[in-house]
Amino acid sequence: MRWHRAGFRGYWRWKSRSSGGRPQIDADLRAxxxxxxxxxxxxxAPRIHGELLKLGFEVTQSSVAKYMIKRSGPSAQGWSTxxxxxxxxxAAMDLFVVPTIGFNLLYxxxxxxxxxxxxxxxxxxxxNRGMAxxxxxxxxxxx
Length: 143
Description:
- The chain is an alpha+beta fold.
- The protein has helices at about 1-15, 25-40, 45-55, 60-65, 80-85; strands at about 90-100, 105-115, 120-125, 140.
- It starts with a helix and ends with a strand.
- The relative contact order is 0.08.
């Protein structure tokens, strides 16, 4: 029985051996990567990799990504937060065609500032004149 156990142990030791691959990086370098990622939450793996190269460490970007601290929760602000923060500075634009009673077409451009829902620009023109965004007698600037 002893020879059977020894053979079984030898087989699994052989099966579990290191199959090569990348050498492990030092524990100090792993700690430095974790410290950089916690101290600078906006830095990703490319930035930390670049900083480590400047310091003289030979490490790949994938290794840096592997040893960075994983953050829980959303990494950036959500879409509704972005809209709430930037609504006064966002404008919406629409270009549409209006058929008239005489079967002519009018092109209409409207720009609306979303913060106060105010009209910024209205322009109406015919197809043969083209849409001009510079003020002329066919456009009505609202201020």
